[in-house]
């Protein structure tokens, strides 16, 4: 069971339907979701207050590479947990996301429970380290 997460989360997904599905999945944890559809919107949302506690990036995001988007997250919201959702057929994409700074990488299509539990697990780990 995933605990209630009263936290701000940014979902960066170029597909509006997919973004809404991810937002609904994460809202079920109690998270407050903000959606970004491209790199400019992601940058704007990362700069908002309060800063996001987590960012979920669906690759590819228009206007940037996944590695550049992860770097922007690390620079603008350094404390945010970074999740990358990538093509399940590409271990190369999953490896690249981890090498670029993702805290967790999940394959698309993502299972709702796996996403919620992964978010909770990474946040638990980062809270333990603080």
UniProtKB/TrEMBL annotation:
Q: Which residues form the Response regulatory domain?
A: 8-123
The record's listing under PROSITE patterns reads: RESPONSE_REGULATORY
Q: Name the SMART domains for this protein.
A: REC (SM00448)
Q: Which domain of life is it from?
A: Bacteria
Could you give a single Gene Ontology term from the biological process aspect?
Answer: phosphorelay signal transduction system
Under the heading Gene3D superfamilies, the entry gives: 3.40.50.2300
SUPFAM superfamilies referenced in this protein's UniProt entry, alphabetically: CheY-like
Matching entries from InterPro entries are given as: CheY-like_superfamily (IPR011006), Sig_transdc_resp-reg_receiver (IPR001789)
Q: What is this protein called?
A: Response regulatory domain-containing protein
């Amino acid at each position: 069971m995933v605990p209630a997460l009263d936290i701000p989360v940014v979902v960066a997904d170029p597909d509006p339907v997919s973004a809404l599905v991810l937002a609904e999945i994460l809202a079920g944890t109690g998270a407050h979701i903000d959606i970004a559809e491209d790199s400019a919107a992601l940058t704007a949302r990362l700069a908002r207050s309060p800063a996001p506690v987590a960012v979920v990036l669906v690759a590819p995001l228009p206007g940037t590479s996944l590695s550049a988007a992860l770097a922007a997250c690390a620079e603008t919201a350094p404390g945010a947990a970074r999740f990358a959702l990538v093509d399940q057929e590409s271990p190369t994409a999953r490896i690249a996301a981890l090498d670029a700074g993702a805290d967790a990488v999940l394959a698309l299509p993502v299972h709702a429970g796996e996403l919620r539990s992964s978010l909770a697990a990474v946040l638990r780990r980062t809270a333990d380290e603080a």
